[in-house]
């Protein structure tokens, strides 16, 4: 497995397995199947409601803890929005570790750029200093909020997990993050099939040339850009297919052809939209 080195020296597998939208009752089997395929990087979140199932799969796998890289995320309502500040974030992290059955996290992210995330970041810096979290980062932060957080805090986020796929490539933003030492991580690498991604002629043509699927081409394209990816599937054969992307390489011409697919806008929603801000900011996680 190819690793990337985060800004604090922590090694992170560039390919992982995500469990967003996997129902809790299906998560344990899905994660167990992914670990059997060879995945060692797992990505979950308090908001997904499946941390306990991820933890059960880890426990039953028999894989040594040091061979795994586990990420989870702090939700908005645990960020100190109601005034509890740093204590809320610390309790939320400890709750996630308990659900996962882990004594430490490899990566802990602020899930959304809302609420009192400055208090959250101060708490996460302490969690890192205390050895409970190997690396800390953010998710869904737009450039202005990311740079503001970097400018006014001691620890620079190790990762920013954002929507990144062929139709929303974020190349300029990746260059900005590289400048500040922040690793870009993709959620939604397949855009959930929107805009007919799996039928796209450019991607399918490149796939045919390499005897690979569109999904494999997309993952390879992201990996060659240095983007960490966490594809999701509940089908073992697709998990194995997504894992099998290290035996071919896209040419400069193929990378350039994929670059022409960029539409420069989200296929989902804008985190600066006031309506979305209100909805996400008021969504509770039990």
TrEMBL record:
Transmembrane segments: none annotated. Pfam families: Aldo_ket_red (PF00248). Substrate binds at residue 111. This is 2,5-diketo-D-gluconate reductase A. The active site is at residue 48. It comes from the Bacteria. Keywords: NADP, Oxidoreductase.
């Amino acid at each position: 497995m190819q690793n990337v080195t985060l800004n604090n020296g922590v090694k992170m597998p560039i390919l992982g397995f995500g469990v967003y939208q996997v129902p809790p009752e299906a998560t344990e089997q899905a994660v167990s199947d992914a670990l059997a395929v060879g995945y060692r990087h797992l990505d979950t979140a308090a908001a997904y409601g499946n941390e306990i199932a991820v933890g059960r799969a880890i426990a039953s796998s028999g894989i040594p803890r040091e061979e795994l890289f586990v990420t989870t995320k702090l939700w908005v309502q645990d960020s100190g929005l109601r005034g509890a500040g740093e204590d809320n974030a610390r309790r939320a992290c400890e709750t996630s570790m308990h659900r996962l059955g882990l004594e430490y996290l490899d990566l802990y992210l602020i899930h959304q750029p809302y609420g009192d995330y400055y208090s959250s970041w101060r708490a996460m810096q302490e969690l890192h200093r205390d050895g409970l979290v190997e690396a800390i980062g953010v998710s869904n932060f737009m450039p202005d909020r990311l740079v503001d957080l970097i400018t006014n805090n001691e620890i620079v986020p190790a990762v920013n997990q954002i929507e990144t796929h062929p139709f929303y490539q974020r190349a300029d933003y990746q260059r900005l993050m590289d400048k500040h030492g922040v690793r870009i991580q993709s959620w939604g690498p397949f855009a959930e099939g929107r805009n007919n991604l799996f039928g796209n002629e450019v991607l399918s043509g490149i796939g045919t040339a390499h005897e690979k699927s569109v999904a494999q081409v997309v993952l390879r394209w992201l990996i060659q850009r240095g983007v960490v990816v966490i594809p999701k599937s509940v089908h073992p054969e697709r998990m194995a297919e997504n894992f099998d992307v290290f035996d071919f390489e896209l040419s400069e011409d193929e990378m350039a052809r994929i670059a022409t697919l960029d539409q420069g806008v989200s296929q989902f929603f804008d985190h600066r939209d006031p309506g979305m801000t209100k909805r996400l900011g008021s969504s509770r996680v039990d």
